[in-house]
Amino acid sequence: TIDGRRIIPSEWVEQSWAKQIEVKNNKLYGDLIPGLDGYGYLWWRRSVAGVAWYCALGYGGQFVLVAPALDMVVAGGSSLDGRNPGMQKQFEGIFRLVDRYLQPAAGR
Fold this sequence. Notes:
single chain; alpha+beta; five-stranded antiparallel beta sheet; 24% helix; 24% strand; globular
């Protein structure tokens, strides 16, 4: 909200997170996103220890991870170096940090 006024309807947010496509065997992100179970409208869906996460992943390691049940949003940007934006090591590190440390610290 901005000044108490909702900008994006909550129904649209819920619909954007809903599974639109099954992607369990996705070759691009299937090995990079632990717990991957689908894709919504620009959101990758995953589940970790029963907690739903919605992930927006951008070129060069940009990411936004949202776990509504934990009231948590994790956002950042990373790059291995300027020549090679990489993905495998970046996403392994990002999800390891979230799964091993942030989610347990939130109590789930």
